Amino acid sequence: MGMTSPIRPTDDAARELARALMTQARFAALAVQEPGGPAVSRVAFGLDAAGQPISLMSDLSAHSRALQADPACSLLVGEPGPRGDPLTHPRLTLQARATLIPNDTPEYEEMAAHYLRDHPKAKLYIGFSDFRFARFSVSEARLNGGFGKAFHLTSQDLGL
Prior knowledge:
38% strand; alpha+beta
């Protein structure tokens, strides 16, 4: 007997939930490939002026060095609420490729001004010479909207 796919057809409600998770997120779990195998780290998360996912990270971090060697990565946004089973809360996995933006460029300055609106505490270190932005080009996403609410989304579904 075959199993029924748990993936539902993508609809506007799924698209809206996925975009809301991205807009509300201030941090994410970032998965990268390190020389010894996969690794996950918590990173700052935001959106640039065009709505693309970004993170501000130090060149000294292991995940930043891993992205320089292999830009393929994955991000998880959406945190459990204060009550109930954590697995019933919505979350979004983004499959992406990172582009690191040098901190001595006009593009970096524009991103920094936009980023500081949602991340004011980053003002303490955004100007450090070892910090740069990673912009994530999303190829696809998986939305788990709660029990029995799984969707595959494209970058177009996310408005990217």
